[in-house]
Amino acid sequence: MMMKRFLLYFYLFIGSFGLLAATPPIGSEPSKILSVNKTQPTAFKTIQSAIDASSQYKSVIILIGPGLYHEKLYITRNNLSLVGSSLSDTRIEYAELRNNWREKHDSDWGAAVINIAGSDINIVNLSVTNNYGRLHDTDEHQFAIRSFESATRIILHQCDISADGADTLSLWNKENGLYYHSYCSFTGATDMVCPRGIALIEHSTFFNLKQTATLWHDGELDSEQKLVVANSTFDGVENFWLGRHHYDAQFYLFNNQFSKNMANKAIFKKTYKDTTRNRNNYYGDRYYFYANQSPRDHLWLATNITPEQYTQFTEPSLTQWVFKSKWRPKHVLNELQKVIQQQQFKSEPFTL
């Protein structure tokens, strides 16, 4: 009976991928659960070796045991879940500076700790750290996670994502990127969380190491593209900034708490004296706030939408308003958790 129940959940999970994904799976063989564990003889010893071994399967869940993994990961397939035991026990750490990488490479592929060129990627119960800055005393660009032009539907849940410099989390599918992050913590410097496309971040914490922007967004290709942050907290060094953008962007901030360290500096569009570098302004300034709290009186942070408008955004749910019918990330997480619960794998329960 237990095996039948597991198979039912697993095939439901596979089915949820098939219904929601526009990109095909990389393999043709039935879906698979793989294990990474430094102490178990039959398990993979590195995460990348498990990813490499997964190419033949339609979808894969990789269960990662406790430990510190000094690895750089390359994800070139779709339908992949990386699940650790908890963000405190399962840690991926690598030191890489973007400028160093680009001296010998033509692109950013490989400049991050986790490099993603696939869709329907779920990263859960993991810490991902680019620690180059603390080792070499620099706050230049250091990606923890970087996705590329075709990658979409990326979930981070119960993760600690950190770097010591700019662009910690860079998910850069400008055309149709969809991203959902919940119960995560983010640490970095300039533009530390910088999605292109549509992103929703809930129940998370942000800590900015520098007096510059925490959030960044690019939504110039479609007026519906937006960055939404709700029920989260922001802190950082004294006079850290909330956000900025270089392209047309759209920001929604609902029910967040901001520390006294946040500068009295509204979200703004970056422009240059060399006007040839400035992007066109297609949609105008779009910065929307509702019921945020700060110990300081920042007038630009005041609520500027009505309760009726807010209700439209949150009924039937915030995720449904953000992603419309394109994606159901909470459904994906729920089905993933059902599969994991059938395994003899000690993993922090999902908060959904």
Mean pLDDT: 93
Main sheet makeup = 10 strands, parallel
What is the CA-based Rg, rounded? 20 Å
Tell me, briefly, the overall form: globular
Number of strands: 25
Q: Identify the quaternary structure here.
A: single chain
Beta-strand portion reads 25-35%
Portion of residues in helices?
Answer: 10-25%
- Report strand order across the widest sheet: 1-2-5-8-11-14-16-19-22-25
Class by alpha and beta content: alpha/beta
In DSSP terms (H or I, runs of 4 or more residues), the helix count works out at: 7
Detailed description of the structure:
This protein is α/β, with parallel strands linked by helices and 352 residues long. Helices cover 18% and strands 28% of the residues. It has seven helices and 25 strands. α1 (2-20) packs antiparallel against α7. It is globular.
Features of the shown structure:
8-stranded parallel β-sheet; 7 helices; alpha/beta; 352 residues; 28% strand; 10-stranded parallel β-sheet
